[in-house]
């Protein structure tokens, strides 16, 4: 299941993670496996899950765009666990697999994305492939579409989610669900 | 902790006598997470388990992942430390001059340059 076994669900609840497990059930990203692995370290599950949830589900950048970015990053990290999770809210708002794949494909030439969305997708695409290309000129272009607060929201989400995706890749956790379901 | 030990842990930990076997495998974990995560397999985790509990492994792994993610992002923001190596509050312009375009650890980088500029000693080595 995982190189490091998740702690028992009942034990996680005893440790005070019941609210997080319920949040996992409601949001879909992550599912409860991730915090139950982190729960080996008291405090980590709550702090890291909370930060990732805030970065992904809250804020002032469109949640569907952030979900497409999150999955693009997980595919960059080659992490099958986070790649196959889906935000229930984004799906309910109309996000589909075709749009998700488009965000990992030729998004630069996809008329289905706005210029701002293309910049954001380029931001996440370049961050761990060619970060040297993300310079002042690149940020100046981003400021034509997003406020500085929104750019920090995107950058922080990209950094935190990618870091945890790389970690979870090494945990060798398979997909929790079939995206075709 | 010294700057020399930090450099040793980054550049030469595999053959260093300054680190225990446990510390070396933790340093390797960090290095691989950044540069070759595909090499962190079940066998590698078994090596970690020879020295660390499951809780300590998760603590290390999540900490490393967090740093892998954030340091790349921070790099793109093009900002530098608020303080000089000798503890002075400096402007970003001065900090950039001190720490350079590619900040590395102090003993080979900023501290050596700062000391050299102050006439205290020559830099120990190149960048």
Quick tags:
heterodimer, A: 181 residues, mainly alpha, AhpD-like, B: 127 residues, 2 domains, 6 helices, elongated, disordered C terminus
Helix content of chain B: 55-70%
Q: Termini of chain A, distance in Å?
A: 20 Å
The Cα radius of gyration of chain B reads 17 Å
Poorly predicted tracts of residues of chain A? none
What's the CATH first level of chain A?
Mainly Alpha
Largest sheet of chain A: none
Order of helices and strands of chain A: HHHHHHHHHH
Any idea how many domains of chain B?
2
Proportion of beta-strand residues of chain A: under 5%
Oligomerization state of this entry? heterodimer
Please give the alpha-carbon distance between the first and last residues of chain B: 21 Å
Please tell me what the overall shape of chain B is. Answer: elongated
Corresponding CATH architecture of chain A: Up-down Bundle
Q: Approximately how much helix is present in the residues of chain A?
A: 55-70%
> How confident is the prediction overall: mean pLDDT of chain B?
84
Query: In DSSP terms, counting alpha (H) and pi (I) runs of 4 or more, how many helices of chain A?
Result: 10
Q: What would you note in describing this structure?
A:
The complex is a heterodimer of chains A (181) and B (127). Chain A has one domain (9-171): AhpD-like, CATH 1.20.1290. Helices cover 62% and strands 0% of the residues of chain A. Chain A has helices spanning 9-27, 33-38, 44-57, 63-76, 80-83, 88-92, 97-103, 115-127, 136-142, 148-171. Chain A starts with 8 loop residues before the first helix and ends in a 10-residue tail after the last helix. Residues 121-127 of chain B have low confidence and may be disordered. Chain B has helices at residues 3-11, 21-35, 42-49, 54-77, 92-99, 110-117. Chain B folds into two domains: 1-77; 79-127, no CATH class. With 127 residues, chain B is an all-alpha fold. Helices cover 57% and strands 0% of the residues of chain B. At the A-B interface, helix 9 and helix 10 of A face helix 4 of B.
């Amino acid at each position: 299941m995982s190189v490091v076994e998740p702690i028992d669900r009942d034990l996680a609840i005893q440790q005070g993670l019941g609210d997080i497990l319920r949040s996992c059930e409601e949001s879909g990203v992550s599912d409860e496996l991730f915090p139950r692995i982190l729960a080996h370290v008291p405090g980590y599950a709550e702090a890291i899950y909370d930060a990732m949830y805030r970065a992904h589900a809250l804020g002032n950048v469109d949640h569907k765009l952030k979900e497409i970015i999150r999955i693009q990053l997980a595919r960059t990290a080659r992490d099958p666990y986070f790649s196959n999770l889906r935000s229930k809210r984004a799906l309910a708002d109309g996000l589909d697999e075709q749009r998700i794949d488009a965000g990992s494909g030729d998004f630069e030439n996809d008329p289905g994305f706005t210029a701002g969305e293309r910049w954001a997708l380029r931001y996440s695409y370049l961050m761990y492939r060619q970060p040297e290309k993300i310079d002042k000129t690149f940020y100046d272009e981003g400021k034509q579409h997003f406020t500085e607060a929104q750019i920090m929201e995107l950058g922080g989400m990209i950094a935190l989610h990618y870091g945890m995706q790389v970690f979870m890749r090494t945990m060798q956790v398979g997909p929790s669900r079939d995206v075709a379901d | 902790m010294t700057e020399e030990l930090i450099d040793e842990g980054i550049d030469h930990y595999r053959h260093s006598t300054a680190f225990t076997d446990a510390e070396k495998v933790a340093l390797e974990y960090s290095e691989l997470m950044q540069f070759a995560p595909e090499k962190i397999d079940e066998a590698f985790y078994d090596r970690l388990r020879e020295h660390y509990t499951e809780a300590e492994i998760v603590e290390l792994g999540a900490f490393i992942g967090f740093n892998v993610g954030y340091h790349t992002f921070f790099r793109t923001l093009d900002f530098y430390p608020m303080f000089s190596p000798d503890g002075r509050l400096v402007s970003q312009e001065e900090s950039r001059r001190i720490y350079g375009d590619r900040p590395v650890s102090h003993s080979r980088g900023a501290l050596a340059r700062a000391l050299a500029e102050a006439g205290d000693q020559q830099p120990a080595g190149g960048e």
